[in-house]
Amino acid sequence: xxxxxxxxxxxANNRGSCFGSDGWISNDDGGLIISTNPTTGEIIGTVETxxxxxYEQVLSEASKxxxxxxxxxxxxxxxxxRDLGNxxxxxxxxxxxxxxxxxxxxxxEGVGEVQEMIDICDFxxxxxxxxxxxxxxxxxxxHRMYEQWHPIGPVGVITAFNFPGAPWAWNAAIxxxxxxxxxxxxxxxxxLTAVAIQNITNQVMAEHETRGIFNLLVGNGPSIxxxxxxxxxxxxxSFTGSISTGRKVSKQVATRLGRTILELGGNNAIIVTQxxxxxxxxxxxxxxxVGTAGQRCTTTRRLIVHSSIVDKLINRLIxxxxxxxxxxxxxxxxxxxxxxNEGAVSNMLNAVQRALDNDGILLYGGKRLPExxxxxxEPTIIRMREQTPLVxxxxxxxxxxxxxxxxxxxxxxxxxxxxxxxxxxxxxxxINTAENFLSVGGSDCGIANVNIGTSGAEIGGAFGGEKDTGxxxxxxxxxxxxxxxxxxxxxxxxxxxxxxxxxxxxxxxQD
Length: 511
Ligand code: UN1
Prior knowledge:
- This protein is an alpha/beta fold.
- It folds into 2 domains: 15-264 and 470-487, 3-Layer(aba) Sandwich (Aldehyde Dehydrogenase, Chain A, domain 1); 268-459, Aldehyde Dehydrogenase, Chain A, domain 2, CATH 3.40.309.
- Helix content is 37%, strand content 20%.
- The chain is built from 15 helices and 23 strands.
- The strands form 6 sheets. A 7-stranded mixed sheet has the order 14-15-16-13-12-18-19, with helices on both faces. The chain has a 6-stranded mixed sheet with strand order 2-9-8-7-10-11, sandwiched between helices. Strands 1-4-3 form a 3-stranded mixed sheet, with helices on one face.
- Helix 3 (74-90) runs antiparallel to helix 5 and helix 10 crosses helix 11.
- It is globular.
- Bound molecules: 2-aminohexanedioic acid.
- The site of 2-aminohexanedioic acid has 12 residues, from helix 6.
């Protein structure tokens, strides 16, 4: 473990606020966060939390750097992100391993997360030459109209424990080519990953003789997160986390008329029709519901299955679940690691109990696995007669609820009858059914897949969801527009002043 930490420039005790290679700030009145390995309960290292003084220092650097960075032509800004992508490539394995160690996802998923960071850097480099604005035909002769996009300012990025790197990268790589600087408040559960990433950005910023573009503030949500959310110097807060916290963040930022990009919870379902390929379905459900120990916001939490195949699918799933090896996420054979902490485990067990108290039938799992470690649980399948209020909640755990349906219309209704709207999928070999699911009356989610599970989205599309998921979009497509301000420009190149809408506004002396 020591050599891994060393490779990533980490020590036993790390500073947690920074704005560049020489900008690690020593803690004075801040506290200490202890990072523990959820697999063993051992301490990996500690990180000093930002104090109010270091907060001010970081914010002032980020604001000052913004004024310079916004003047750099965006293709040149892209060069910094190209080098960040390359630095991440060099650190693919160790950073992936650290994510695994600190968060508990299996190594291929930890490495996959770093790959997702690299992918978004590649995307952002191309984007740096494509921050296009439209031109419009003016209704007035001799006038030209167009829109242009300007950087918006320092952007606050608050991320969650389950993806300690990728959502930062979706925001940071895009915001940086857009000309913004970034102030990152990572989850207090995964501070070492954040410090390691900051070390990588520090190296890249130093090579480009710049600082204050990528900035870090490790601290608790109620102190540092809260201060950031209320800070008028931050025109945009991009928040990933729970619906309840997202609601508060949204309200507070709205009060100061700032902008938010919210990526909140999901309660993602797969509809399985009578003509679905069962082998394909089983593989997708297994990855979607057991992957990352059910702790992705895109995790498959509900299965809505045609009644004619529900028993067959259940048997196949029980077989697949029984073959899942659970244990140390860094072991080659492991498919499922630990839950993140005791709170997550007790939330899961409470939900299982509530489901069983409400007519649910336990088909698989439902218990702790103390012989492996205190945070290990069995992935769980529960058959529900109907979609109860509990099923409509997001429990951030590997619980899969199975319901059945007769008519596709009922399946889609059930699918959409939850407060969240992140990801969705249908398994079918019938094109009409697939198109029905994708039509305006079909899935109401931000992501809709056919014959692919709910999790594991690529970076090229816009990522996010509707309803209680918060409506934000990050990552690919035109999500970059969220990180810039749009300016509509009209130029008159004549000596006349015709008014729009044909208005005549002339004084009496000219009549
Ligand atoms: C998250 O769980 O917050 O689509 C992000 C996925 C990943 C990202 C998940 N690309 O599952």
